[in-house]
Every structure is written in structure tokens, then in C-alpha cells.
Amino acid sequence: MQTINFTPNQTTDFHKTLRKKVNNYFKTKNKSRHANANMVFKTVFMLSIYIVPFVLINTVILNPWIAIGMWTLMGFGLAGIGLSIMHDANHGAYSKNATVNKIVGYSLLILGGSDLNWRIQHNVLHHTYTNIEGMDEDIDAPSSILRFSPHSPLNKLHKYQYIYAWFFYGLMTLTWFLIKDYQQAFRYHKKGLLKGQNTTLGRHLVTIIISKVIYAAIILVVPLLLAPTTWYITLVGFFIMQFIGGFVLGVIFQPAHVIPAADYPLPDRTGNIENDWAIHQLYTTANFAPKSKLFSWYVGGLNYQVEHHLFPNVCHVHYPAISNIVKETAIEYGLPYYSIETFREAIYEHGKMLYRLGRA
User: Fold this and answer.
1) Residue 24, Cβ neighbours under 10 Å: how many?
2) Which percentage of the chain shows pLDDT scores above 90?
3) Which of 139, 194, 246, 339 is the 20 to 30 A CA-CA neighbour of 260?
């Protein structure tokens, strides 16, 4: 794997100053940077809107339309668990206890994913090398279908991606379940990233296969055998759940980085990025809909992407409070602080970027 170094031309103490201010906030407010009662309630809520509908589908629901409604609700629960619970836990932000984080992080398994692959893709690659072509897998989409970086190969199909990309977002979790986790296992082994997680390719593949067999047995085989509704309702419902979950995840993650304002820096021949890592995050990341409290609650504070990238080990329930500190410090140092006022505007900006990337 290519070695990337952040080597700023000019020394700045922005990151040091910002960390000091944020640490002082938690100290003076006598608050933990981890989960609070609100977060515990959210955990129970998100798990409930995923598990309770599934139980009802397999026991008492006879009406096929109500069953489809329950699968739909499970889709929002799937996304909610991923955005609000699993995400914090696998960043070590849910609890100061590493074991608790590990257990809560396993919630990705009940969604059909691999927690280890997620930590490598998200924590190691995306958070370290945000928007850097060939390193950040969040912008390394299948190049024949989607183009998320101006440095990726361009083909004629990309001209229409601003129209069809949204459909492929809906296939995200289904692709993870069926294909991507296996591809990532081999790719991360080849890059030596599995060794950094203290595992081997064989052990990792066995874990993936076992977890997915168990997931498929529970989420598909059980309702096929037990649900009062017909088998095709189960298959349709399962697809709807996956599509909604994938779509929600896609439209939350992508507008934070794939927008016209974001930078896509390239390293020089020696692998150097001429910027400080923290400042790099400011140039490649954007917030959106910061005033929408209910929206922010559901998406796990990931509309505060700037704060999340600078402080990934802080539970998202604290992002609104520390966002003022981050913004003020960025302005103090003459640095950008990208924030889009509404989610609708963020979607528009992302669509505009998809349009541009399909043409140049």
C-alpha cells in the first residue's frame, strides 16, 4: 500500500489549539466525551425499530401490506443502527470501556456486514486519507458505474450518474452482504491491513462466512418458514429493507465529501500531501443541516462531519456543542469551515458534483 505523509509547508498549531479547547470544554462542563443517557435511549430505540417489526412479521402479521410496512420500518432501523450505534462503537466513542465498544460494534453483524472490514475501510482509510484517490475507498466506487473523484477514469456512462447514482446507493448494503466483504478481505490481506488488525485472511474469511450464514438464516430463512405471509412477500420485504437502509446511508455519507466545495488533493511523487492532517479534514469535509435537531438525532450526528472527522473518538451526541468551538477556531486560523444549511441543499450540491464528475 502506498505511503502517504501529511507534510505542511507552513507549521500551524491549529490542531493543537483546537484539541486543547475541546478538552477544556469537557473538563469545565464536567462531561464525559462518551455516551450519555440520550445515547442509551437512542440505542434501545434503533434496535427496537429493527428487531420488533421482525418479530411481528414472523408471528402475528397476516396482512401482506402491513408486513411490507414492517420491512420498510426495519430498513430505517438498519440505517439508524449503522449511523447512530455501530458507528460510534467502532470508533471507540460509545464508551470508555473497550469491551463495551467491541460488543456494541458487533451490531453490524445483525445488519449483515463485517465489523472488521468496516473499521479498516472507515477508520483506517477514509478518516486518515479523506478524498485522496486510491486511498479513500469511500470515493473509490466501481469506476465503470460511478465516479466520485475528478482523478478517477471517466467513461460515457458517467454522464448520467447524477440520475442513476441514487438507485445504486440503495444497493449498498445488499452489495456488502453478497460481494463486497469478500472482495475487501482479499484486498486488505494483499495490502497488509489485516495484519494490522491482528488477524489472517483465513480467519477473517471464516468469520465473514459464518456471520453471513447466521444472518441469512435468521433474516431470510426464518420468515420464509414461519411468517404467516407468502414467501414472495418475504423476498420483496427483504429487498425493500436493504434498499432503504443502503439509500439512507448513501445520501448521508456522500454529501459530506462529494460536493463542489470539497478538495481532492493528490500526493506528490514521494507520497507527500502538502497539508496538516487536521487542516486536510477541513478542506475535504462539510457539515449539513446543523439546525435540524431531529434529523441530526436520527443520523447519529453525521451531519456534523467536520467535527466527526476531527474528533472521531467523541460520541456524536456532543457534536452540536463542540461545533461552535471548531468553527470559531477554524475562522481564527483563516481556515474553511464548510456547512450547508439544509439537507435538501446538501443533496442538491452532491447531485451537482455527480453531474460535474460525469463530464470532466
Assistant:
1) 11
2) 91
3) 246
User: How far, in Å, are 30, 41, 275, 287 from residue 284 at the CA level?
Assistant: 32, 32, 12, 11
- Joined together, the cell numbers standing for residue 308 give 466527526
How does DSSP classify residue 159?
Answer: G
Q: Is the Cβ–Cβ distance between 315 and 34 less than 8 Å?
A: yes
Pick from 338, 148, 108, 106: nearest CA to 250: 148
DSSP state of 286: E
Average pLDDT (219-240) is 96
CA distances from 348 to 47, 75, 288 (A): 31, 24, 12
pTM: predicted TM-score of the whole model, two decimal places: 0.93
DSSP SS3 for 360: coil
DSSP state of 262: S
Residue entry with cell 471464516: 206
Identify any residues that bridge with 338 across adjacent strands, giving them in sequence order. Answer: 286
Q: Tell me phi and psi for residue 152, to 5 degrees.
A: -85, 155
CA distances from 158 to 92, 254, 258, 356 (A): 37, 16, 15, 10
Q: How many helices (H) and strands (E) does the chain have?
A: 17, 4
pLDDT in tens, 279-328: 999 999 999 999 999 999 999 999 999 999 999 999 999 999 999 999 99
Residue 339's H or E segment, with its range, is strand 338-340
HSE (side-chain half, CA atoms, 13 Å) at 249: 27
Q: For residues 98-115, b (16+ Cβ closer than 10 Å) or e, as one string?
A: eeebeebbebbbbbbbbb
d(CA 319, CA 289): 13
